[in-house]
C-alpha cells in the first residue's frame, strides 16, 4: 500500500470507549482474558508448583506441546468458520463450550490425574479459545474507523493482556487461600468459568452480523472451506508483504521467548531463592507476569506514537534490537532482579512487534479472508514456541542456568531482524515512485 504521508490525530481511550460497539467488544475481551489468565496460572500451579507433583524439563515441554501444538489443527477451522459464520455466535458458543471444559479440567486436577488425561480437556479449553481471540481481532475493523486501527488495537490488546495478568494474580491469591495441592488447585482452576461465561453474555448483546464477515468468499460446502483454510490464509499472507515480513519478526520473537520461558520456569522452580520482597517459585512467576504486564501497558501507550514518529519498519527493527540487547544484558546474570527487568523489556518490545503485525493484518488483509490469516498467524505462533521449548528441554540443565541458550535466544532476534528486512524489501520494490510509504514514514500501518 502506498500513500502520501499525512498528519494523524489520536482519538484517545475516552473517545474509543464512547463507541458502544467497541466498548462491548473490549468488555468481551477483558472478561475472556481474565478467565484465560486465571485458568492458565491455575493449571501451571497445579502441574509445575504442586508439592504433590514433580516437573522436569521434558515434562514441562510435553505440557507446552500438548497445550499449544493442537492449535495447528484447530487454526484452519478457526479461520474458515470465522470467515463463514456470524462472529458474534462463534464467540458466544466458543466461550460457553470452553467453560464446560474448564470444569472437566478442574475435575481432572482434583482427581490427581496427569499426562494426557489432564491435558486433553485443557487443550480443548485453550484451543477453542482461539475462536474467541481470532474472532475479536477479526471483528475490530467493524467497530472503529480504519485509520485508527493501530490505536484501537493497542488499547484492546494491552487492556486484555493486563487483564490476563490480573487473572493470573487472582489464581495465585486463590491458591494461597484454597491450597497448593490437587484439591486447592482444582477449585482455583474452576473459577475461570466466571470470566468465560461473562464474556459469552457480553458478546450475546451484539446484534447479528455486526462483527462480520460482510462477505463470504468460500466454497458452499463447509468441509471444503475448512480444508482450504490454511492454504487461503497462506496465500493472503504472501500477497501482503507487510504481513509476511511482520510475521517473520514475530515468529523469531516467539521462538526466543519460548526458550527464555523454559529457562525462567526452571530457575524459579529449582535454582533461585527469595530475596526480600522478590520471590522465587510460583510467587516469582507472578512477579514476572506483573513485570511483563507493565511492559504490555507501556507498549500499548507508546506504540501508536512511536509508529507515527518513526514508521513501522524502523519501529519493528528497533524493537528486535532492543530485545536482543535485553537478552544478553539482563538475561545472563540470571538473578531475580535481572529476570524481572528482562521480562519487562522483552515483553514491552515484543508487544510492540505484535501490535504492528496485528494491525497490518487488520488494515491490509480483506475482511473475507482476515479470519483465516489470523488463524495461520496463531498456528505458526504456537508452533514456533512449542518447537523452541521442546528443543530447549533437551539441552537445558535442571536448574535452568544455561548462558549459551540465552545467547542463542538473543541471536534469534537478529535472525528475525534479517528476515524482516529481506521480506519487507518485496514491498518497497513494488511501490510507485514519487510516493512516500506509510511503512517508511510516520503514518498508519499499512
TrEMBL record:
<dbReference type="Pfam" id="PF07690">
    <property type="entry name" value="MFS_1"/>
</dbReference>
<feature type="transmembrane region" description="Helical">
    <location>
        <begin position="339"/>
        <end position="361"/>
    </location>
</feature>
<feature type="transmembrane region" description="Helical">
    <location>
        <begin position="58"/>
        <end position="78"/>
    </location>
</feature>
<feature type="domain" description="Major facilitator superfamily (MFS) profile">
    <location>
        <begin position="1"/>
        <end position="428"/>
    </location>
</feature>
<dbReference type="InterPro" id="IPR020846">
    <property type="entry name" value="MFS_dom"/>
</dbReference>
<feature type="transmembrane region" description="Helical">
    <location>
        <begin position="186"/>
        <end position="203"/>
    </location>
</feature>
<feature type="transmembrane region" description="Helical">
    <location>
        <begin position="90"/>
        <end position="113"/>
    </location>
</feature>
<feature type="transmembrane region" description="Helical">
    <location>
        <begin position="280"/>
        <end position="303"/>
    </location>
</feature>
<protein>
    <submittedName>
        <fullName>MFS transporter</fullName>
    </submittedName>
</protein>
<feature type="transmembrane region" description="Helical">
    <location>
        <begin position="373"/>
        <end position="398"/>
    </location>
</feature>
<keyword id="KW-0812">Transmembrane</keyword>
<keyword id="KW-1133">Transmembrane helix</keyword>
<keyword id="KW-1003">Cell membrane</keyword>
<feature type="transmembrane region" description="Helical">
    <location>
        <begin position="245"/>
        <end position="268"/>
    </location>
</feature>
<keyword id="KW-0472">Membrane</keyword>
<feature type="transmembrane region" description="Helical">
    <location>
        <begin position="152"/>
        <end position="174"/>
    </location>
</feature>
<feature type="transmembrane region" description="Helical">
    <location>
        <begin position="404"/>
        <end position="423"/>
    </location>
</feature>
<dbReference type="InterPro" id="IPR036259">
    <property type="entry name" value="MFS_trans_sf"/>
</dbReference>
<dbReference type="InterPro" id="IPR011701">
    <property type="entry name" value="MFS"/>
</dbReference>
